[in-house]
Amino acid sequence: MRRFVFPLIAILIAAGTALFVNAWLEDQKRAALASVEPVTVVAEPDYIEVLVAAERLLPGSFVKPSSLRWQTWPDVEVPAGYQVRGQSDDADFTGSVVRQVLTPGDPLLPEHVIRPGDRGFLAAVLDPDMRAVSVPVDAASSNAGLILPGDRVDLILTQSMPGTGDGGHTRRVSETILQNLRVIAMGRRLHQDPDEIVGNDVARTATLEVTPEGAEVVALVTELGKLSLSLRSIAGNAEPASARPSERPVTWDSDVSHVLESAGHSVRTLTVMRGSAITRDSAAAEGQP
After folding, report:
1. Do the strands 277-284 and 267-274 form a parallel or antiparallel pair, or are they unpaired?
2. Residues 103 and 211 in one domain
3. Same-domain check for residues 138 and 238
């Protein structure tokens, strides 16, 4: 009998121990679960589009339509001053001048640019140590209004030279005075928008960026004759701004019209006397009696 009692007691003790251990493990599990903070599911944020630089922009450069782009941005605590699509228009910044360096992807803030009409706009456009001077132009001398701010031009002077000697004729000559000048403004228009030209509304003045020496040259040539602007290719701006042509080439009226006398032709004067009346006439030496 005793042979069966001891094994039975051992089985009961083992069962009781298992039940106790299982209950203890359940308590530990519940305690562990109770100590874990609930996980908060964060909703995916909404997105907006903000205006950013599409390319590297340097101080003094004009903002073109291609200079800016809209970039996706989380709609979470958007800083004040960011230009949000639907609330701002990128066209409002076209023609502005950059105040500081902007790298691609930098959000555009109002303080980063100065707009046409703002105080100090013209000074912000100028490169360091450069000057702004204005010259009179008309429809013909300004390419019929097709020259816009930001373009590069040459400044051409056309003047009349009085003839010398008997029968001397007034000569006309043109020469390039300054090269590769940046156009700052045409009239009061300070940015590139050809759609602003209405009818015959062509600028009467062109404001050019020149060196201090170039400013003195322009002040002088405006008193000598008629000035014209020659538009340069965008790919041909290697020469320094305001540089005078090294060889100083000039074009005389006889270089473009063979009817006119060349500078080297001699001139004969024919005197006709009829009684007391005396008349004089000049004839070129080539083939004239």
Report:
1. antiparallel
2. no
3. yes
Instruction: Return all residues near 25 (Cβ < 8 A) that are at least 6 apart.
Output: none
Decide: helix, strand or coil at residue 21: helix
Q: How many domains are contained in the chain?
A: 2
Task: Say how many C-beta atoms besides its own lie within 10 A of residue 175's C-beta.
Answer: 18
Nearest to 155 by CA among 93, 91, 209, 94: 209
Read out DSSP for 35-73?
HSPPPP-PPPPPEEEEEEESS-B-TTPBPPGGGEEEEEE
State which residues form the domain around 115.
47-122
Q: Are residues 221 and 108 in the same domain?
A: no
**DSSP H/E element including 216:** helix 212-221
And the tokens for 209? Answer: 């960026």
Helix (H, G, I), strand (E, B) or coil at 12: helix
Which of 62, 91, 122 lies at the terminal end of a domain, its last residue? 122
Provide the pLDDT for residue 80. Answer: 87
Residue 48 backbone dihedrals phi, psi, to 5 degrees: -125, 180
Question: pLDDT (tens digit, 9 = 90+) per residue, 117-174?
Answer: 777 777 777 777 888 899 988 776 666 667 888 889 999 999 888 766 555 677 788 8
